[in-house]
Design goal:
- The chain is mainly alpha-helical.
- The longest helix has 33 residues.
Amino acid sequence: MVADFVLALLHHVLVFSLVGILAVEIALMRPGIGAAEVRRLGRYDIAYGIVAGLILLAGFARVFWGAKGADYYLGNHSFWAKISAFAIVALISIGPTLRIVDWGRQVRRDPAFVPADNEVRIMRRLMHAEGFFLVLVIAFAAAMARFST
């Protein structure tokens, strides 16, 4: 029972951390972003990826070692909707991550580099889409906890 509580707590803290990191990234991702913000954005994006990976580890630990057992999760449609929404978040995040890495390289070459405003706006929209699907992840988690099929 204690292990289940610890896994659940860890999973929830990580999910809320991911939402917070994404919020900071969206706040930093604005037209006119300079070299210091690009570097900061790169660090936050690394943290975002690490936390997302830890969410998967903690989540699947709950599936296989949690109190409800794998059958509860693997047979639950809301669980699969949650996993699908999380996969969509991961796929959407590829574009901004690749762009942030590229901008970081350009900043190292030229400290005066400023990303094009239209690219920044597109990446910001993609990050908002990530946020939308993260809300769906949370909604499906709530449904999963309340509906067994």
